[in-house]
Structure formats: structure tokens, C-alpha cells
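Quick one, C-alpha cells below:
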């Protein structure tokens, strides 16, 4: 029998206060959403790639008709503490009423961190951990332009501390965006490699949320629906983003996965992917894809029943749990190949670095949530399997 609350949970909790507005073309509603939030001066946090793509042009010019808008476009992949602290100086001198995060996970996480620095003194490094801030961050609207982050519905911001080459988690219940505007049409202009990597990030969120120790029946429902939506649409959207139903499924699946892991957790895939992202600046979704099937194999002794359940939900008719679970892992491996995501070996990371990667992965806040205990030896095993 599957327990109602997760293995480590006594009282089940679910918290997600963000208002979600979803649908193709919904970005045209942004001005009225801003008005409803009684804002007049806005800071839009994004990256130069988004500005260069032209996706932000109609948004900014429409906002400019009613509000004073400043743009901070210095966010990079795996956003750095130095960049956030620069954004903090800008936001403190501008004193806006509202932050808008526009972009992938990096821009949304950066927007959350800058919203925090707007109302709290000092550098972002001072706020690593849970609810370390004194004052409530500025209100925020999150507009994801990828299909993977989930950041629009979570309370966490992941920022790379450049001194330690370490990804810090900064979180608290006041850090949820007030509104998430989800427009599946943004996927029409998302480059193919980003559809692949962010889509695999979303799939990783859903699978880890469904199997980690703090899972609950509420997160299970969200995670299972997310897995079905993502696995049913990712390859279609990758090949043809003009297929409207596929775009909607991917965008919704990504957000449901965010709601799931935001209230359960992620596991060893994210622990190792965040380590590798911090050390070698590998895109988050690519790093997750490299390790998802390998970590699933590692977790098989304790997660087989759940993997088999997912496989059957997707149509597998095998009665044997081991066979069904392995078929799911194989399906994910094939998907990653069809999406042209490079293997871990392509990073050419020296085996001499593995002990340090393993050590840092164990230190990740989510390590204890992984369904099977992973120590440094466990991560060494995972790293060696990923190179094969
Ligand atoms: Fe992720």
C-alpha cells in the first residue's frame, strides 16, 4: 500500500499561494495584472538572450504605456551572486513597487533574489538557507519563457556563490511569486536545445518529486499528471512547437512538476546536477538529463514499485515490477538521445574530480530526501555509471 503522507512525514502540508493564469496569448493580460497589484514602478529582470530574441519587446512597450519600467538584463545561466548583488544595488536605488521575472529558471530565480535584496540590506550570500531575511521581499510576477523551471510556483531561488563555486538555496514562504503568467506561446520562439534541456529538467522535477522521501499524496497527484503530460508532449514540441496542444501540455506539465517538487523535494539527480552546474557551468537541464536514468537505476532497489507504477500509467503492460521499471528508465534514456542531449562523457571531466563532485553532492540540502541513501561512495558509483 502506498502511504498517504511520505515516509518521513507525520502531518501532510501543502503550500502554494501563487495565482496561476494560464493560456495561449495570456501575456496580453500583463498590464491589467500589474494594475491589480497596484504597482507604478517596475523592475523587469531578464537576460540578454531574451531581449535579443525579441520576445520581450511587445511586453516592455506595452508596460511602458502605463508604468515606469526599468530593465535589468544581466542575468546569466546559473546566476551568480555578484550579478544578484549588482541587481540589489539597482533595485535599492530605483525602489520599484514590483519585480517582474521574465525568462528561464535563471531569470526567475534572479528576480526572486533581487526582490529579497530590495527590502533587506547586505549581499545575497547573507540569506542562504530558509527564511534568513528580516523583511518581506517585494511582490513579483513570474513569466517563464521555457518549459522547465517550475520556479514560477516555488519559494526557492538558486544562486551560485562565486567564491565557493557552490549553488546556494535561498528560500522562504514569502518568496513565492504573487502571480505566474503561463503562456504556452512563448515556446514558439524557444530554441530547440532549450526545449530539450528545460523539458528534461521538468521531467526530472516530476520523477524526483514522486519518489523522494518527503512526498505526499498531494504531490503524488501533481507529479504523476506532470510526468504523463511531459512524456506525452516533449518530443512533439521539440520537433514541432506549432502543435498547440503539445505546447499547452508541456507548459502545464512543467508547472505541475514545480508545484510537486516545491512541496516535496528533489533528490540525487539535482544534487549532482547542481554540483556540476556550480563547478563547470553546465546548463541545469542538460546536467539533469545526464544523470536522471543513472540515478533512477541507483534508486531501483527502493523505488522500483513507483517506477513500475509510472510505466504502467504510460501504457506498459508488464506484470513484473522490475521489468516495467527498467522499461521506464530505458524510455527516458531513448528520449534524451532523441532530444540530442549530450552524454556526461562529452564534458570530459577528469575522474580526479569525481571525489570532490561526490563530496559536494552529499552536502546538497536535498541529499537526505533521495529515496535511497547516497553517500560519497554512492555518488562515485553514479558518476562512474554515467561515464559508461
Ligand atoms: Fe531543476
Amino acid at each position: 500500500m502506498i502511504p498517504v503522507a511520505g515516509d518521513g512525514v507525520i502531518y501532510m502540508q501543502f503550500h502554494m499561494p501563487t495565482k496561476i493564469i494560464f493560456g495561449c496569448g495570456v501575456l496580453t493580460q500583463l498590464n491589467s495584472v500589474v494594475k491589480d497589484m497596484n504597482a507604478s514602478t517596475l523592475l523587469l529582470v531578464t537576460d540578454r538572450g531574451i531581449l535579443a530574441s525579441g520576445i520581450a519587446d511587445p511586453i516592455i512597450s506595452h508596460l511602458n504605456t502605463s508604468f515606469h519600467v526599468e530593465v535589468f538584463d544581466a542575468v546569466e545561466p546559473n546566476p551568480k551572486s555578484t550579478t544578484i548583488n549588482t541587481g540589489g544595488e539597482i533595485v535599492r536605488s530605483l525602489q520599484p513597487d514590483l519585480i517582474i521575472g521574465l525568462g528561464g529558471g535563471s531569470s526567475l530565480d534572479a528576480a526572486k533574489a533581487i526582490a529579497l535584496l530590495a527590502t533587506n540590506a547586505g549581499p545575497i550570500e547573507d540569506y542562504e538557507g530558509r527564511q534568513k531575511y528580516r523583511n518581506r521581499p517585494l511582490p513579483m510576477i513570474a513569466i517563464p519563457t521555457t518549459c522547465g523551471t517550475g520556479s514560477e510556483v516555488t519559494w526557492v531561488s538558486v544562486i551560485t556563490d562565486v567564491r565557493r563555486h557552490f549553488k546556494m538555496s535561498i528560500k522562504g514562504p514569502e518568496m513565492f511569486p504573487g502571480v505566474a503568467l503561463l503562456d504556452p506561446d512563448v515556446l514558439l520562439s524557444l530554441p530547440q536545445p532549450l526545449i530539450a534541456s528545460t523539458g528534461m529538467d521538468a521531467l526530472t522535477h516530476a520523477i524526483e518529486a514522486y519518489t523522494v522521501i518527503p512526498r505526499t499524496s498531494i504531490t503524488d497527484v501533481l507529479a504523476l499528471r506532470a510526468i504523463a503530460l511531459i512524456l506525452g508532449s516533449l518530443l512533439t514540441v521539440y520537433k514541432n512547437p506549432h502543435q498547440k496542444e503539445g505546447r499547452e501540455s508541456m507548459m502545464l506539465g512543467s508547472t505541475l512538476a514545480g508545484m510537486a517538487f516545491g512541496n516535496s523535494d528533489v533528490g540525487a539527480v539535482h544534487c549532482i546536477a547542481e554540483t556540476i552546474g556550480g563547478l563547470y557551468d553546465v546548463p541545469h537541464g542538460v546536467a539533469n538529463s545526464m544523470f536522471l536514468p543513472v540515478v533512477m537505476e541507483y534508486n531501483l532497489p527502493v523505488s522500483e514499485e513507483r517506477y513500475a507504477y509510472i510505466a504502467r500509467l504510460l501504457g506498459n503492460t508488464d506484470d513484473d515490477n522490475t521489468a516495467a521499471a527498467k522499461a521506464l528508465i530505458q524510455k527516458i534514456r531513448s528520449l534524451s538521445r532523441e532530444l540530442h542531449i549530450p552524454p556526461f562523457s562529452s564534458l570530459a571531466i577528469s575522474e580526479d574530480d569525481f571525489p570532490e563532485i561526490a563530496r559536494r553532492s552529499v552536502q546538497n540540502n536535498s541529499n537526505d530526501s533521495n529515496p535511497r541513501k547516497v553517500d560519497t561512495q554512492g555518488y562515485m558509483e553514479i558518476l562512474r555509471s554515467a561515464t559508461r
